[in-house]
């Protein structure tokens, strides 16, 4: 079809019902003289008639469900990735919790001996001794070891992963806590961290 572009536009306007009366006369005159445009117009007219004839056809009520059932199943990794991409805050929080939990468990499993430093404490292998006649003013924390109190402690005593706590009544003015289970240790770490934060 080598006719001017405005002729094709007039054909589309006519089929849409938007053509003005004077444009309609011009189009009718052109179609009588141009076989290409006439054939193009007739093809478009048939297509419009066909679409109008099937517009009342409705898909069955379960059509969508049947199509979805026949689609290949999505891999679980794809749906997981999509969820993480759509929920970045939860993804970051989950990653933070995983990393923190891993570092906490790693430090719980660590078997390195440690003790709060005081000048008047005696360390014999993995046993911390408060000698008779000595007074420790402050809290003592022993990790992966034992404590034997012969003197006095003016504060709290915490033994983490220790086998023995030896002291007679009245020698510790604060609380005595033995932590040998993971959840007790985790709770102790949370309390310690919070107390450090609120001290500042």
UniProtKB/TrEMBL annotation:
Every Putative zinc-finger domain range: 5-37
TM annotation in the entry: 89-108
InterPro entries xref list: Anti_sigma_zinc_sf (IPR041916), Znf_put (IPR027383)
Pfam families documented for this protein: zf-HC2 (PF13490)
This protein's record includes keyword Transcription: no
Gene3D superfamilies: Anti-sigma factor, zinc-finger domain
Keyword tags: Membrane, Transmembrane, Transmembrane helix
Recorded family membership: Belongs to the zinc-associated anti-sigma factor (ZAS) superfamily. Anti-sigma-W factor family.
Protein's recorded name: Anti-sigma-W factor RsiW
Organism of this sequence: Aeribacillus composti
Lineage: Bacteria, Bacillati, Bacillota, Bacilli, Bacillales
């Amino acid at each position: 079809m080598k006719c001017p572009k405005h002729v094709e536009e007039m054909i589309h306007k006519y089929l849409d019902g938007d053509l003005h009366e004077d444009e309609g006369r011009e189009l009718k005159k052109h179609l009588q003289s141009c076989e290409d445009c006439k054939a193009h117009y007739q093809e478009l007219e048939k297509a419009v008639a066909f679409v109008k004839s099937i517009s009342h056809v409705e898909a069955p009520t379960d059509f969508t469900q049947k199509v979805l059932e026949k689609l290949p199943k999505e891999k679980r990794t794809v749906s997981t990735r999509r969820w993480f991409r759509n929920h970045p805050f939860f993804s970051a929080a989950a990653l933070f919790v995983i990393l923190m939990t891993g570092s906490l468990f790693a430090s719980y499993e660590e078997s390195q001996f440690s003790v709060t430093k005081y000048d008047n404490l005696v360390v014999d292998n993995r046993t911390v001794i408060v000698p008779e006649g000595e007074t420790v003013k402050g809290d003592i924390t022993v990790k992966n070891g034992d404590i034997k109190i012969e003197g006095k402690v003016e504060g709290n005593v915490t033994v983490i992963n220790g086998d023995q706590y030896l002291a007679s009544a009245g020698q510790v003015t604060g609380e005595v806590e033995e932590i040998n289970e993971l959840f007790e240790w985790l709770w102790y770490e949370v309390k310690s961290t919070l107390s450090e934060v609120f001290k500042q």
